[in-house]
Inverse folding.
C-alpha cells in the first residue's frame, strides 16, 4: 500500500511516498481502505518533532488520526463490522497513521458512517467533534443561559464548539478575523471580536466560561472577560494554579479522550442536520497535497477543516 510518511522531523517538505506492506489483520482488528483523512494541528506538531518525548516513534512515521473509509477485512473476533461497511473514526497517536491507503486497527474508536455523511465530512469530524463536545459538556459543564467566550472559533474545533454551545442555549462571544464574522454568526455566535486589534475586555465582561483554543492567547486578557468564580478550559496550554487563584477562576488544560460513544453523538447530530462540518479545502493524497495542507494548517487561519482525499466522494 502507498503511505505518505516522514523520515525526519522538520517542515512540511518532509513528506515522502512509501510503499509499505499491508499488515496482517489481528483477531480484534479491522482493515480499512481509507477514502479521506483530515488534518489536525497535532499532526503538524508531531511532524515538527514537538512531541518526541511523549511519543518516541521510530521512522518512517505515518501521521494522521482522523479517517473515513470502507472495511476490506475483519479479524476473526470482530462482530460489529463486516467487509464493505463504511466506517469513520480517529486513532490515538501511533506511528501508523491515516496518511495511507490502508489502515489496520482495533475497532475501539470506530463507528459506522451514516449514509448522509460523505467520506470527506466523516473524516473531518472525529477529533474536532469529540474535542468540542467533551470540552463544553464534560469540562466546562456549560448550561443554558450562560455566557461563554470561545477563543479561536473559526477553526476545526471552534466552529463545532460554537454550534454545540448554541444548542445548549448559551450566549456566545467568539474571537475571529473580520472575514470570518458572517461564518461565525451563522454558526450561532452573537458577538464576534476581531482579536487582531481589540481588547476582549473592552467588549465583554462578567462571562461565565471561556474555552481557549489559541496557543498564542494572552491568558490575562481572557481572565479579564470572566466573572469572579468563572470557568476556563484551555486545549492549548497549562493554566497555572496561582494564576487561577489570583483571578478567582477554576479551570485547567484539557485533552480530548476519543471514544466511540462521543463520536456517535456528534455524528448523529451531523446526520440529523443539527451540526454542520465545514470543510474549507480538500487536497489530493500526494506529497504536495500534504505539504500544502500542513502549511495551510500551520498558517493558523483554517476555516473549519482541511481534508485530504484518497478517493473522491
Ligand atoms: N488538547 C486536545 O485534546 C486538543 C484536541 C484538539 C485540538 N487541540 C488544540 O486546539 C487548538 C485548536 O485546534 P483546531 O483544530 O481548532 O485548530 P485550527 O483549525 O488550526 O484553528 C484555526 C483557527 O484558529 C484561529 N486563530 C489563530 N490564532 C488565533 C488567535 N490568536 N486568536 C483567535 N483565533 C485565532 C483562526 O482564526 P481566524 O481564521 O479567524 O484568524 C483559525 O480559524 C490547536 O492548538 C490544537 O492543537 C487540542
Amino acid at each position: 500500500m502507498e503511505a505518505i510518511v516522514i523520515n525526519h522531523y522538520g517542515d512540511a517538505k518532509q513528506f515522502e511516498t512509501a510503499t509499505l506492506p499491508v499488515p496482517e489483520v489481528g483477531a480484534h482488528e479491522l482493515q480499512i481502505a481509507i477514502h479521506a483523512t483530515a488534518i489536525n494541528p497535532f499532526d503538524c506538531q508531531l511532524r515538527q518533532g514537538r512531541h518526541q518525548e511523549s511519543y518516541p516513534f521510530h521512522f518512517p512515521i505515518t501521521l494522521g488520526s482522523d479517517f473515513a473509509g470502507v472495511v476490506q477485512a475483519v479479524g476473526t473476533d470482530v462482530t460489529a463490522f463486516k467487509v464493505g461497511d463504511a466506517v469513520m473514526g480517529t486513532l490515538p497517536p501511533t506511528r501508523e497513521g491515516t496518511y495511507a491507503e490502508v489502515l489496520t486497527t482495533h475497532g475501539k474508536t470506530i463507528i459506522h458512517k451514516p449514509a448522509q455523511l460523505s467520506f470527506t465530512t466523516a473524516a473531518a469530524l472525529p477529533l474536532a467533534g469529540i474535542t468540542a463536545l467533551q470540552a463544553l459538556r464534560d469540562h466546562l459543564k456549560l448550561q443554558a443561559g450562560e455566557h461563554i467566550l470561545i477563543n479561536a472559533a473559526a477553526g476545526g474545533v471552534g466552529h463545532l464548539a460554537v454550534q454545540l454551545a448554541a444548542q445548549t442555549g448559551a450566549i456566545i462571544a467568539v474571537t475571529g478575523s473580520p472575514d470570518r464574522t458572517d461564518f461565525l454568526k451563522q454558526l450561532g455566535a452573537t458577538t464576534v471580536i476581531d482579536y487582531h486589534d481589540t481588547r476582549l475586555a473592552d467588549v465583554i465582561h462578567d462571562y461565565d466560561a471561556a474555552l481557549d483554543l489559541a496557543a498564542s492567547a494572552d491568558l490575562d486578557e481572557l481572565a479579564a472577560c470572566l466573572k469572579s468564580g468563572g470557568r476556563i478550559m484551555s486545549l492549548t496550554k497549562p493554566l497555572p494554579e496561582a494564576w487561577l487563584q489570583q483571578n478567582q477562576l477554576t479551570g485547567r488544560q484539557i485533552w480530548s479522550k476519543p471514544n466511540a460513544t462521543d463520536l456517535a453523538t456528534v455524528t448523529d447530530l451531523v446526520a440529523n442536520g443539527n451540526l454542520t462540518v465545514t470543510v474549507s479545502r480538500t487536497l489530493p493524497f500526494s506529497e504536495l497535497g500534504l505539504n500544502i495542507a500542513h502549511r495551510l494548517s500551520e498558517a493558523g487561519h483554517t476555516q473549519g477543516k482541511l481534508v485530504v482525499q484518497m478517493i473522491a466522494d
Summary: The first strand starts at residue 2 and ends at 6. The first helix runs from residue 41 to 48.
